[in-house]
Amino acid sequence: MGKVLLGCIADDFTGATDLASNLVRSGMRVVQTIGIPAQALSEDCDAVVIALKTRTVAASDAISQSLQALTWLQAQGAQQFYFKYCSTFDSTPEGNIGPVTEALMDALGETFTIASPAFPENGRTIFKGHLFVGDVLLSASGMKDHPLTPMRNSNLVQVLQEQTKRQVGLIEYSTVTKGPLAIRERISQLKKQGIGLAIVDALSNEDLMKLGPALADLRLITAGSGVAIGLAQNFGIESSDQAVQLPRANGRKAIISGSCSIATNAQVAHFLAQGGAGFAIDPLSLAQGQPTLDHAMRWVEQQSPDHPVLIYATATPESVRAVQSQLGVAQAGAMVEEALSGIAKCLVSRGIHQLVVAGGETSGACVKALGIESMRIGTAIAPGVPWCHAPSPFAQGGHLHITLKSGNFGTEDFFTQAFQKLA
């Protein structure tokens, strides 16, 4: 077995598949694990992506899990390491991006790395250190109302500086456009100035491809998934269609949506407006102990087996705040995750073989409930959102096709397009 070229640590499950998808499309053979494996790697691959669920846990827990993941990746012979976080830099002034980055740098003995959540294909661009979502600043986007990590400052230099003891600098767009040599020279200048971390501007995929070769000598990279598209070239790997082939899909289809992002709200509304069958989960009913699982399963049995069903707790920011005010943020989120993951387990055990899960926290809960430990990454439905093939002890036949969608990703017709793409 060859050595792993790139070892990746992702702070949530949808982010892990997002990163794995970009690596696969660049030609790398990728294994994604759910959590830190208990055993050594058993298959030959170019990159391993370890999916953690550390985005919103206490910073100390995020650091501990990330360092354990790093140790496992080092044992597999990984040559370069990648800490993946959200393309909207979901975090708080206390962490977790800064603290985890510093802990990984310390463990590797590194004095410098970059930070860049840019993913232009999905509308995430950085200019003069400011993160844009589409045509608006991050602080004016729907992320300003995120229930767990509201982002109200678009200046990533300032955001990251609040989270780290190291000095944070910037690699400006004017430097990026000049190519890898100019970027490397800028990195050298920043190091001499005592800068330990640098936000990198990027407005297009071409910028990320220029950035890739400039990072070849960095042992640690921290970024969203976008930077990954420029890294395979450093290892002499070219894009290949062979990396995305999955077994043929069959069986019933379902969608489970727990994200309350603007994008997912639009996707749920579009699916229902097109005549799709949907069952809404009410957190207040869950709090009152109403048998939601039984009701949901009876409803599914009444639907046509030829069409996908949607079970959702997706709601507007106003509705989410109203529920949180009554139940508390943590309790409301935990109840919804438990309900949706229980429903996912029942659906798969009753014959659902094609499953779309929307939302990072929801995806993490569902994957764990389904006993999925690793996934084979396939073709992308939308940038950063691939179909995967995964073993599950609850699936009829032992496997299912599943996609884990970040709440912010995908067009309005994503749910429909997902199954068409798989077919």
Compact overview of the structure:
The chain has 423 residues and is an alpha/beta fold.
Spell out the blueprint of helices and strands.
Layout: E1 6-10, H1 13-25, E2 30-34, E3 47-51, H2 59-75, E4 80-84, H3 97-108, E5 113-116, E6 124-127, E7 130-133, E8 136-137, H4 156-161, E9 167-171, H5 173-176, H6 180-192, E10 195-200, H7 205-214, E11 220-223, E12 252-257, H8 262-273, E13 277-280, H9 283-287, H10 292-301, E14 309-312, H11 317-327, H12 329-349, E15 352-358, H13 360-369, E16 374-382, E17 385-391, E18 399-405, H14 414-422
**Domain unit count:** 2
Strand order of the largest sheet: 9-10-5-11-4-1-3-2-16-17-18-15-12-14-13
CATH secondary-structure class of the largest domain = Alpha Beta
User: Helicity range of the residues?
Assistant: 25-40%
Number of strands: 18
The overall average pLDDT, rounded, is 91
**Fraction of residues in β-strands:** 15-25%
Shape: globular
Structural class: alpha/beta
Identify the quaternary structure here.
single chain
Distance linking N and C termini: 33 Å
Report what the structure shows.
- With 423 residues, this protein is α/β, with parallel strands linked by helices.
- The chain has two domains: 6-239, Putative sugar-binding, N-terminal domain (Rossmann fold, 3-Layer(aba) Sandwich), CATH 3.40.50.10840; 245-422, 3-Layer(aba) Sandwich (Molybdenum Cofactor Biosythetic Enzyme, Chain A), CATH 3.40.980.
- Helices cover 36% and strands 22% of the residues.
- The protein contains 14 helices and 18 strands.
- The chain has helices at residues 13-25, 59-75, 97-108, 156-161, 173-176, 180-192, 205-214, 262-273, 283-287, 292-301, 317-327, 329-349, 360-369, 414-422; strands spanning 6-10, 30-34, 47-51, 80-84, 113-116, 124-127, 130-133, 136-137, 167-171, 195-200, 220-223, 252-257, 277-280, 309-312, 352-358, 374-382, 385-391, 399-405.
- Strands 9-10-5-11-4-1-3-2-16-17-18-15-12-14-13 form a 15-stranded mixed beta sheet, with helices on both faces. A three-stranded antiparallel beta sheet has the order 6-7-8, with no helix packed on it.
- A hairpin with a 2-residue loop joins strand 7 and strand 8 (136-137).
- Helix 6 (180-192) crosses helix 7 (205-214) and helix 10 (292-301) packs parallel to helix 12.
- The longest helix has 21 residues, at 329-349.
- It is globular.
- It starts with 5 loop residues before the first strand and ends with a helix.
